[in-house]
Design brief:
single chain; two-stranded parallel ribbon; globular
């Protein structure tokens, strides 16, 4: 989904954490929709994230000084990770296929992602 965000992130970790939280909201909604339409439950939904500190922040239910300024609504992802509905998985920068839509890439990387 592409939209203008209504928040100001103070770090890349916070930005990725908030984006992952918003993605988890959409994923949970889609999981419920599939469950109601087809009558079966899905396995854990994997969301790819390129910042490992954001993944650790979602897996740790303890509030730290570095995360206390993040709005409480974005901590929804912590509950989803604890319940097993969502799992964040690290993906390296060289494997970010979505970069073809969001960044200027070199020719080799562009051709690799295009394939």
């Amino acid at each position: 989904m592409s939209k203008k965000y209504k928040f100001l992130a103070l770090s890349t970790t916070e930005a990725e954490y908030i984006a992952a939280s918003m993605a988890s909201c959409e994923a949970v909604w889609l999981r419920k929709l599939f469950s109601e339409l087809f009558g079966f439950t899905l396995d854990t939904t994997v969301i790819l994230c390129d910042i490992q500190s954001g993944i650790r922040l979602s897996e740790n239910p303890v509030f730290h000084d570095r995360s206390k300024h993040i709005d409480i609504r974005y901590h929804y992802i912590r509950d989803m990770v604890q319940w097993g509905a969502i799992r964040l998985q690290h993906i390296g920068t060289d494997e970010q296929v979505a970069d073809i839509l969001t960044k200027t890439l070199g020719k080799v990387k562009f051709l690799t992602f295009r394939e």
